[in-house]
Structure formats: C-alpha cells, structure tokens
Amino acid sequence: MLTTKINKRYKKWLLALLVLMLAGGGVVWYLFTLKYDDTASVKAHYTVNAMDFIKEFKQNMTSANKKYSEKIIVVNGTVSAIEMADTTANIKMVDTTNGAYIIFAFQQQHLQEAKAMKEGEAVSIKGSCSNGAFSNILEAEYITFKRCAANK
Amino acid sequence: MKKTILSVALVMATGLLFAQKKTTTSATVAFDATTAIDALPKAENKTVIASLDTKTGTIAFEAAVKSFAFSNPKIQEHFNSKGWMDSDQFSTATFKGSIVNLKDVKFNKDGTYAVTVTGDLTIHGETKPVESKGTITVSGKTIKATSDFTIKLEDYKVSGNAVAAGKVAKEPKITVVAEF
Which of A13, A116, B35, B164 is packed most tightly, with the most Cβ within 10 A? Predict the structure, then answer.
C-alpha cells in the first residue's frame, strides 16, 4: 500500500519534470530558430530627420548611441549616394558641410527598393540603427543601419 | 602668368595625390563561426569603411561591430554582449596594413593580381599582427580587393561556453570584399 503511494507520487513528480523539460526545450528551440521580422512590418521607435539625427550624434555620440542603438528608426532625408556591390545596395545621406553621413544596408527582400532610389530624391527609410562612430579613415562621423526597408 | 601656371600645376598635383587614396563606405566583411552542431553564428557587415592607397599600398578597414547582422535576434544579442564582443565598449574592429608585393599590382591595367597583405588587426580591444593572401582585380576604373582568412578568437580574448561546447568555431573564417 505504502509502496503504491510512493510510486504514484514518484510518477507525478517525474511527469512534472518531463513537462518542465519539454517546455524549457521548446522555449530554447523557439529562441534559437527565431528570425528577424521584415522591417517594413515592424513599428518604429523613433522618426527623425536625417540632418538633425546626424547633429545629435555629433553633439554627443555616447548619449545618441545609448538612445538609438538597436532601435528601429525611420529616417527622412535626401539620397546622397547609392552604393551597390555584388549583393549589396546601400543608401547614404550625407551632411555635405562636414562629411558626416548615415548609411543604410537593406534587407535582401528590399534590395530592389534601394536600387530604385535616385540621388537627390527625398526618401523615408526604416531600419535598425547599429551605432554611430567617428571614422579615422574618413575623418567624419558616421551612423550605420542594418535590415533596412523603404518606409511606406 | 608664371604664378598662375605654378598655382594651376600645384592644384593638379594635389588632385592627383588625393586620387591615389581610394575609399569606400560599403565594403563587406563576413564572418563564419558555424560548426557541425550550430549553423547560426555567421554574420555580414555591409557598411564597412575601407581605404586603399594605390601609391603606397596602404590599406585600412573600420567595421562597426553592431553592424554585423545575424539572422537570429538571440545570437545578435549574445554577439554584442559583454561576455562576447562587448560592442558597447569596443565598438569598432579595425585593420591597418599594407600590400607587401605592391610592385606586382598594376592599378592602371585591367587584370587580377594575387597579393599578400600584412598589418595589425584590432578586435575586442586586442591588436595582433596578421598576414593574409588576397586578390586585387582591376577593371576599368574599379578596383576590387578580396581576401579570406581565419582568426583565433582566443587571440582577441573572445571566449565563452558556446566555444567550449563546440557551438562556435574557435577559428572563424573572415571574408573581405571592397570595391573602390
């Protein structure tokens, strides 16, 4: 009788442990098979004007990075250059007074949008802001974006 | 008149001098640290700054660490965390070096040239001398530089459980492509 009771309790705990392990394994599997959403469908944290955005980084790089890094930002500005190479299509917005710039690397599914943009065109681009830094090569500040899409 | 000619000549000479140093803001650096048990640790940075001086053979790269884009958000987070690349503190990976066999490269003649590049690679605050083979392809006004090499993560004090568990390669492969 006592043995039966112990067996039942043992089985219950074993079942609970198994369920927990399966649930934990499921969460881990979910997290590591997760992919980024299409940026076009993601809500932006901020909407900014390109030149004001550059100014903010120039004034205080540390605080701007803290505020914007890894956030989804919509940037409105003028295309200064379209840089294409192999599978890349990057759009640049440059502050011509000092050479500081923002550069947007587009998601694969949105490459054609970048290629269709024209120099001098007013555009709106949404992407994940990586960070801003000072380039010793170019002697200018730059801000990089990844996983970008045209903002419609 | 003589002063005018001298001034024009100086301006032209300066212009030519600056044309030697070529830059791009869209070089690509990819790293592949995948293993047999994990295909996730690989990423590409498409906004790398690069420069090439065709007269001296000096070559340089700057890659924002947070611009390495992974397909998985969790891996992206781990990569940039304090325990890995600590990109808040070490925001940029850099290379400064030069082409060893510069005389073998004819920048004014279309062709493909094998090169050896040596220099200092700085990752995660650690600087190590490196040497790699590469190719320079000249086609009209375009110069394309490519190179593949591996690095040892431990040389740059990048380590963690994932490396020990065989989920991240100890010597990831780095691929560089820059079009000037």
Answer: B35
Question: Among partner residues B23, B72, B87, which is closest to A138 by beta-carbon distance?
Answer: B23
- Domain interval for residue B148: 21-179
Q: How large is the ipTM?
A: 0.86
Residues comprising chain A, all counted: 152
For residue B90, give the DSSP letter.
S
Q: Strands B142-150 and A140-150, how do they pair?
A: unpaired
Q: Confirm if A118 and B52 have CB atoms less than 8 A apart.
A: no
Structural domain count, chain B: 1
DSSP symbols for A4-46: HHHHHHHHHHHHHHHHHHHHHHHHHHHHHH--PPPGGGSPPSE
Shortest Cα–Cα distance, A33 to chain B (Å): 7
Q: Helix %, strand %, coil % for chain B, to 5? A: 25, 45, 30
What end-to-end distance do the CA atoms of chain B give, in Å? 38
A45 in B contact zone (CB under 8 Å)? no
CATH code of residue B49: 2.40.128.110
Question: Which residues, including other chains, have CB under 8 Å from residue B70's CB and lie 6 or more apart?
Answer: B40, B41, B42, B43, B76, B79
